[in-house]
């Protein structure tokens, strides 16, 4: 039986055994996430990207709380440039009971769920770091497409403190919303 290449990539992503990450303690999630407040648009400022988003521009993650308590996620970006092909990835977030809404399993392909940890969240819900215990992928996101350099530097210092390899971090090119087309 031949599996679709996207399914094989997802399997590899979920079961990646990063040797260095096994030596690090699990990432501690924030104590609580107010899910309704967390919903909405999050611009990806920096990432250790998955294969799908290695060349993303104008990357935005959109969260919508569903009546059943799950989170509909839509990830939109331009591939390779601001004028590149628009890509959309849809998934569902399943909030882990007892986690203060800070740990999810995100399912792009059934039956696999990728770990999603809200590792740091600014008090005003304007910036967030989403991490994984494997230290293979990470997302720094904000409610605005750009942030002050001091904020960016502080967020990357937090990412470094979590044990991530900083040479793999990619700053995601972002335009102001008015410059975006077809979003």
Automatic annotation (TrEMBL):
UniProt keyword list: Cell outer membrane, Lipid-binding, Lipoprotein, Membrane, Signal
Signal peptide: 1-21
Alphabetized Pfam families for the sequence: Lipocalin_2
GO cellular component: cell outer membrane
Any one of the GO BP annotations: response to stress
InterPro entries: Calycin (IPR012674), Lipocalin_ApoD (IPR022271), Lipocalin_bac (IPR002446), Lipocalin_Blc-like_dom (IPR047202), Lipocln_cytosolic_FA-bd_dom (IPR000566)
A GO molecular-function descriptor: lipid binding
Stored PANTHER family: APOLIPOPROTEIN D
Name of this chain's protein: Outer membrane lipoprotein Blc
Source organism: Rhodanobacter sp. IGA1.0
């Amino acid at each position: 039986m031949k599996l679709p290449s996207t399914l094989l990539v997802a399997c590899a992503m979920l079961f990646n055994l990063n040797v260095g990450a096994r030596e690090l303690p699990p990432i501690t999630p924030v104590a609580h996430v107010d899910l309704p407040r967390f919903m909405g648009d999050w611009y990806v400022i920096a990432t250790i990207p998955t294969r799908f988003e290695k060349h993303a521009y104008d990357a935005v993650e959109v969260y919508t709380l569903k009546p059943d308590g799950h989170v509909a996620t839509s990830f939109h970006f331009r591939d390779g440039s601001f004028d590149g092909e628009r890509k959309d990835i849809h998934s569902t977030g399943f909030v882990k009971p007892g986690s203060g809404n800070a740990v999810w399993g995100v399912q792009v392909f059934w039956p696999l769920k990728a770990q999603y940890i809200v590792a740091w969240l600014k008090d005003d819900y304007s910036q967030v770091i989403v991490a994984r215990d494997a230290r293979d992928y990470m997302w720094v996101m904000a409610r605005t497409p750009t942030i002050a350099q001091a904020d960016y530097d502080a967020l990357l210092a937090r990412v470094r403190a979590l044990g991530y390899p900083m040479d793999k971090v990619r700053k995601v090119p972002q335009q102001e919303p008015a410059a975006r087309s077809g979003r």
